[in-house]
Please model this.
Amino acid sequence: MIRGAFVAVLVAAVVVTVLALTGDPGRASIVWLGWRADMTAATAVLIVFLGSLVGTLGWRVLLWILAAPERAARARVENRRRQANEALTRGFVAAAAGDGSEARRLALKAADLAQETPGLVRVLAAQAAEAAGDQAAAEAAYAAMLGQPDMRLAGLKGLMQLAAVRGDREGALTYAEQAYGQTRAARWAWRALLEARLEAADWTAALDLVKGALDRKIVPPVTAERARAALLAALAAQLEHSPEAKGRGHALDHAVEAAKLQPGFAPGVVMAARLLSLDGKVGRAETVIEQAWKTAPHPALWLAYRDLKTNETPRERAARLGALVAENPAHRESRLLAVEQALIAGDAPAARERAQALDGEPVTARIAGLMGRVAYVSGEPDEARLWMARGMSAPHEPDWSDLDPEGRAFAYQAADWARLVATFAETGELIHPRFERHERSLSELPELPLNYADSAAFLSTEGDAPHEAPLLHPAEDHGFGEEEPADSAGPAPRRRRSPARRLASGRRAAK
Model:
């Protein structure tokens, strides 16, 4: 209407302007019912314009009056919709707050008002019943959703949760399987089924489930890849002790595939390296560990790397460990291993120099033990005792806790593997069950003499320099078939049993 009036005014203005510029106002005569009206052309144009404008306004007023009932109906509908939205909003808030009675009252009100959104009303009714503790009503509300295709997944999830609350595990899994079987499956259904497979230690079924979820794009590829790597390692640990050679062969294949999928997954890499070594493929085992060290160094990796060969001298072993350090020299574990390498080679000055790179590290029991050994081989027994004292109260490192007192790495129980698969798949991080349970790990502190001994000639009554006891690394095997030479200036050192070299997962009794 506004645009029409603007056009009419514009036309009238143009006509009047043209008439004024020509200097001839023109004449117009109107004869109607015997009446004659003479006027200028400009006047006639203005009369026509005003008449049209009055007529248009009158017509619009008439239409507005006639549309009044329709506007009133729309206003009532809009008011009802506003009240329904308010009732739904307040109802969901009450249900979330646990106010069951208020939520149910608002759900009944919304059922009368929100006829355009029956799905939301049913969801609110179910949640209100749950908040009020009426499980039967909640189950009925969720069951009613199953009849609508767009609400079927929501209904199945609600029924699964109710079944889990009342302890019906089989029923909950049944609902999860039905939801997973839908064309538009939800991640929660896959996760519920995966947790059930993990709890039952059914690694093969869990692998099939992960593959299916990847094919249906329920989970991203990176999550599926991490889950597969952890599951393959768990399956390898399960098959490793199989009495059949075929089972052990499958364990090797699964462990190698896990290391290939996730080189940074230390449990799979350590197991693959150990099984490859047992199969006579030491070179391939070294390559697997070296690739893992580039990605994510872990103390169990270098210990497994060290134990791949047992027929070498300490200097040869140190040189081989140096090649591992070179794969990722800037990493903290590489700096620690560089010190270990110097200690194994018997190079005290190099050990002292490399230990300086650890000055900024927080003092843990492992750091204190390492620094104590460096001080001892450097001829500073008093400093070594100070480090040992600090190590007694220093915190332990989670990664080192993955080594049990016998030197086995990642000797997980089935429940530990289940947690590891779930956590590693979602976050890509390892868990440390032994650290969480405060179980004893491989000793981080060396066996050094802790009792006071004179370390300087002027402190000794006889002026004799103290003898140095042989230094043993808690994880190092010194059993090369040779006896340690006895120090003629002091008592013979104690012969220590070499710890068993079992650095891969294996079954063990719970501590």
Q: What stands out?
A: The chain has 22 helices and two strands.
